[in-house]
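pls design
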C-alpha cells in the first residue's frame, strides 16, 4: 500500500491531521493500535482553545461542536483566602469551548468514514523504516498478516507510549521531564454540573477541579497520592473528599449521581527535542506531556497539527520545504510556553509533600496577587484561552 503521509496513531492528533490533509487533497492512512471503541472509551480532556475550534472548522467537522459545545467566558479559582473569577472574554476577547475529547475524536472518525478514508485498527508491531531517507516506509501487523505502507512522510501521532519518538536515535534526542508527587483521581458522573463555569480549587487538603461535559454530565477531579488505585475510592469517599475541598456554598450545591468512569492519571511535564528526524514528524503527546491543570494537553497537540498541516500543504502545493524545515522549532516555541503555564498553575494549585509554612505563605501571596491584579489575570487568561499559533 502507498500513501503520501503515514499517520501513526488514531487519537485526536492523528485524526485531525488526516482530516485537514484530506481537505487539501493529500492522502493519508491512519494506523491505530487499538480498536475504535477503545479509543472512544478514553475519557480525557474537555476544554478547547479557539485555535483547535478553528482547525475543526477548517477540517469541516465543527457542526456538532458548535451545536453542543458550551462557550465559557471565565473560570473560578478558589484558594484558602477566598475565591475569584478570571473573565476570559473581558481580558482577551476570547472564550474557551467545553466539548469532550471523546466527542472531538468521534466527530473525526465519523468524518473519516464519510469520506471513505483508510484507517487500520489493530495495527500492531508498527516499525518506521528509513525516516532519514527520501523513501520511508512503515511495517506493521494486523492479526497474523504482515503489511507494509510506503509513504513520503510519517506523522508520529501515537501518544506518549508510542513508537515514533523512540524511532529518533537516542543520541539525537534530548528529553526534559518533571514528575509530580501526586495524581488526579477523576470521576465522570451522570449529574448536572455544580456551576456554569469550571472551578479550580487549591484547598488546604489538596487540589480539586469541577468540570463538565454537558448539562447532564459532570467531570470532577481530586488530587490523590500516586499509590492510590481507583478501587480504593468508593463513590461516597470521592464525593466526601470533593465536598471537603470546595467552599461551603459550592459543596452545598453539589448534586451527585451515578459514577460512570473513575480513573487515576499521574501528572507529568515532558518535552522531547527535536520533534523531527528526516521525514518523521512528531505531534501531540508523542512529543510532549503537560500536567492537566492548565487544560493544555489536547490543545498543544492541535497546535502541532496546525504547523505540520500547513508545512505539508506548502510542500505539496509548490515543493516549498520551509515549513517542514522549521516545524520543530516553531512547534517547540509554543509548546514550552504551554509547559511553563501548566507547570506554574499546577505548582500553585496543588499541595506538595514537604511544603513548609514559608512555601504555603508564598503560594497564598501569589494567589492573592492573582485575585486582585488585572495584569496578572490578563496573563493567566491569555495563556488559558491559548497563545496564538
Ligand atoms: P493520544 O490521545 O494518546 O493518541 C495516540 C493514539 O496512538 C495510538 N498508539 C499507537 N498506534 C499505532 N502504533 C503504536 N505503536 C501506537 N501506540 C499508541 C494510541 O492507541 C492512541 O489512540 O495522543 P494525541 O492524539 O497526541 O492526543 C493528545 C491528548 O490525548 C492528550 O494530550 C490529552 O488527552 C491529555 N490529557 C488531558 N488533557 C487535557 O487537556 N485535559 C485533561 O483532562 C486530560 N486528561 C489526558 C488526560 C491524558 C491522559 N493519558 C495520556 C493517560 C487523562 C489521561 C489519562
Ligand atoms: C476536564 O474537563 O476533563 C478538564 C478540564 C480542565 C482541566 C483539566 C481537565 O484543566
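designed seq:
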Amino acid at each position: 500500500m502507498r500513501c503520501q503521509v503515514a499517520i501513526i496513531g488514531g487519537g485526536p492528533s492523528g485524526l485531525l491531521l488526516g482530516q485537514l490533509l484530506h481537505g487539501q487533497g493529500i492522502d493519508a492512512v491512519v494506523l491505530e493500535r487499538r480498536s475504535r471503541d477503545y479509543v472512544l472509551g478514553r475519557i480525557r480532556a474537555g476544554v478547547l482553545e479557539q485555535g483547535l475550534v478553528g482547525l475543526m472548522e477548517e477540517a469541516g467537522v465543527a457542526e456538532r461542536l458548535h451545536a453542543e459545545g458550551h462557550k465559557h467566558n471565565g473560570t473560578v479559582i478558589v484558594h484558602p483566602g477566598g475565591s475569584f473569577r478570571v473573565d476570559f472574554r473581558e481580558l482577551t476577547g476570547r472564550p474557551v469551548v467545553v466539548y469532550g475529547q471523546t466527542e472531538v475524536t468521534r466527530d473525526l472518525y465519523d468524518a473519516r468514514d464519510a469520506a471513505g478514508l483508510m484507517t487500520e485498527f489493530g495495527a500492531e508491531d508498527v516499525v518506521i523504516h528509513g525516516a532519514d531517507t527520501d523513501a520511508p516506509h512503515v511495517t506493521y501487523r494486523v492479526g497474523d498478516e504482515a503489511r507494509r505502507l510506503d509513504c513520503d512522510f510519517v506523522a508520529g501521532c501515537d501518544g506518549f507510549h508510542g513508537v515514533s519518538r523512540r524511532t529518533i536515535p537516542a543520541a539525537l534526542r534530548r528529553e526534559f521531564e518533571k514528575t509530580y508527587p501526586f495524581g488526579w483521581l477523576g470521576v465522570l458522573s451522570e449529574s448536572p454540573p455544580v456551576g456554569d463555569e469550571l472551578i479550580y480549587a487549591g484547598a488546604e487538603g489538596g487540589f480539586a477541579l469541577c468540570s463538565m461535559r454537558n448539562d447532564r454530565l459532570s467531570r470532577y477531579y481530586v488530587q490523590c497520592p500516586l499509590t492510590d488505585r481507583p478501587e480504593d475510592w468508593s463513590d461516597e469517599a470521592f464525593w466526601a473528599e470533593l465536598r471537603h475541598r470546595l467552599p461551603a456554598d459550592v459543596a452545598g450545591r453539589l448534586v451527585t449521581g451515578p459514577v460512570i468512569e473513575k480513573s487515576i492519571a499521574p501528572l507529568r511535564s515532558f518535552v522531547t527535542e527535536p520533534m523531527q528526524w528526516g521525514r518523521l514528524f512528531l505531534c501531540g503527546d508523542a512529543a510532549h506531556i503537560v500536567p492537566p491543570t492548565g487544560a493544555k494537553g489536547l490543545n498543544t497537540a492541535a497546535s502541532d497539527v496546525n504547523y505540520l498541516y500547513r508545512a505539508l500543504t506548502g510542500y505539496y502545493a509548490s515543493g516549498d520545504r520551509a515549513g517542514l524545515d522549521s516545524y520543530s522549532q516553531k512547534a517547540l516555541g509554543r509548546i514550552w510556553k504551554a509547559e511553563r503555564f501548566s507547570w506554574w498553575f499546577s505548582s500553585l494549585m496543588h499541595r506538595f509533600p514537604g511544603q513548609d509554612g514559608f512555601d504555603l505563605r508564598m503560594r497564598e501571596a501569589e494567589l492573592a496577587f492573582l485575585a486582585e491584579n488585572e495584569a496578572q489575570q490578563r496573563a493567566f487568561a491569555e495563556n488559558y484561552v491559548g497563545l496564538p499559533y
